[in-house]
Amino acid sequence: MYVLGRGESDLDGGTDxxxxxxxxxxxxxxxxxxxxxxxxxxxxxxDRPHAGVVFGKRGTGxxxxxxxxxxxxxxxxxxxxxxxxxxxxFAGLDAVGGRVVDPKVRPASIPPSAWPDLLGLDPAGGPGxxxxxxxxxxxxxxxxxxxxxxxxxxxxxxxxxxSLATLREAVAAADAPAETRRAAANHLRLAESWGVxxxxxxxxxxxxxxxxxxxxxxxxVPDAAAAAVVRAVARGLYDARIAGDLPRLPWLLVDEAHxxxxxxxxxxxxxxxxxxxxxxxxxxxATQRPAALPSVAVSQSDLLVSHRLTAARxxxxxxxxxxxxxAGDLASRLPEGVGEALVVDDATETAHTVRVRERRTPHxxxxxxxxxxxxxxxx
Length: 379
Ligand SMILES: Nc1ncnc2c1ncn2[C@@H]1O[C@H](COP(=O)(O)OP(=O)(O)OP(=O)(O)O)[C@@H](O)[C@H]1O
Hints:
- By secondary structure, this protein is α/β, with parallel strands linked by helices.
- 31% of the residues lie in helices and 18% in strands.
- Mean pLDDT is 88; it is low at 9-18 and 144-156.
- Bound molecules: adenosine-5'-triphosphate.
- Residues 48-319 form the AAA+ ATPase domain.
């Protein structure tokens, strides 16, 4: 088997399973020959942490490919997939022991400085700065804000957290004009209505406690709340690994990843991209809008999987891999078929066309078809 992400010198000898798969390898598909026939099996290295992207325009198989990777991670020792599922298409992973989680995070997992932005308030304005101050007082200004700081400071078990009701009480009692207090309290009440904040939420590390996939179901969750969850989980996994609280290597698989860059979750995702591999946290971002991802997502990725892309700006983002072996007309090298992809392997500096294997678990990402609805009606 050809293993992506594993340089020649890393190659594991022997096999430990009933197929021909080397240990700690995800079997994702097979090489696709020019005549359309399937060639040798292709795997992805799971022994070491990686950063990866899965690109492709709508319906080309991105979520499906992410699901294949999740199945393989569920099957391997020492690793655990945590899937960010904004469209509600990964519930089928329960067939391999996965559980769909109604995401809850502690308010203290969002740093005080990020609260105004999270609530849509100007950090320099009255209500925004009041919320910032109140959260900082409640959690201790340097208890959680690890971004840009010394990682050791933020390591350790998750800090205890005030509830949003407690924060609202602190706002009400603050020395500020009534109008400012009212506006701040209203925004905190709105955040309460999202239903994702819970002072007693289990620590993020518990998502990865038993090695079975955890699917964070964010379907129908407002964008700001979903971003808060992604930030808390990404950062929480990173901190838990640094603190030694997590005995296995987590893989955070983020579908519709473009929605999480440029907002509240952005710093935590960038931390995983640039520094996640040292403590052993992998990140794989899937998107139909590669151009909406920051350049660092591609430049830091050692695994690139690209289904069909047509928009020039999206192909350009892929080209930023700066790999000389990608030179030439990249768009024309991207395969046409659903489930087919160009995979770029940094470890061996090669690019190959691959057909992603079929899922073992149900995939729920298929778009509804009017024709099928009318079929059903006429029956
Ligand atoms: N490797 C594959 N083998 C077989 N069928 C596949 C494969 N990949 C995708 N498909 C089929 O294509 C459909 C679309 O795939 P998927 O939902 O992953 O698209 P997507 O690129 O994530 O689209 P969207 O951007 O709308 O989420 C799937 O429902 C499945 O039927």
